Amino acid sequence: MGWIIAMAGKGGTGKTTVASLIIRGIKEAKAGSILAIDADPNSNLGEVLGLKPGRNIGTILDEISLNPGIVPSGMTKERFIEYQVQSAIQEEDGFDILSMGKPEGPGCYCYVNNVLRSVMAGLIKDYDYIIIDNEAGLEHLSRRTSRYADILIVVSDASKIGLRSAQRINQLALQLKFEVKKRFILINRFKGNIKKTAIGETGLDYLGCLPPDPLIEKLSLNGESIFSLKNKAAILTALNTLGEKIWKHS
Ligand SMILES: Nc1ncnc2c1ncn2[C@@H]1O[C@H](COP(=O)(O)OP(=O)(O)O)[C@@H](O)[C@H]1O
Ligand SMILES: [Mg+2]
User: Fold this and answer.
1) Which atom of ligand 1 is nearest to the CA of 13?
2) Which of 19, 37, 88, 186 is deepest in the core (most CB within 10 A)?
3) What are the tens digits of pLDDT across the range 130-150?
């Protein structure tokens, strides 16, 4: 069973940036095979990883829901979805990536979502690491990908409002019965150490802080891949020192 790392946090806090840094970190540490799941319908994890968009699961679900006859006779719907999901995986240098997208049709997706969840559960077993980049809420994640993660990383800024929002996300995860072994808070764009008392109220364990990094800003402005970020970048050093807690599990 792979080690599942799920990202959460308000929009713009840095989830996609952190997810991509983790993917780079695991790849460079040669720690194992990686499946990146872009579970944000406004997906941009692929772009940050330097890829062109491929097919996404939302489109596939739409095709099936609008045109049930698309499933070849002699093939179960489950087998068909499994096959389609496999074909939507982009194989890259050092990691695979799957983009969830979002179904656009008016139909009910409960059934296909259930099938999808079991297909995803099977798929996840084939990788050592699964990194799931989420949209702001967690509903999407629990509905369509996995109800389980080994590590949940809630990304936040250091402000009171930010921390309160991280606390709400944690409560939501608990309400959704999203099963997690370790739940962390990662403070992004902060130099130094934050007061432990402020973190305590979120109900999350303190993972660490990542500094504001002009090299990341530059990368983002130029639309360049995370793999072009210089090794000396402060954010990369900071993230890699947290690798021990994020991916070096036994
Ligand atoms: N530590 C940082 N220093 C500088 N810029 C950052 C940092 N973290 C994130 N950013 C920038 O902030 C923007 C939002 O980050 P992103 O990872 O897309 O957030 P989210 O996925 O949570 O919406 C991006 O342009 C990103 O490059
Ligand atoms: Mg994002």
Assistant:
1) 22
2) 37
3) 999 988 766 665 566 677 899
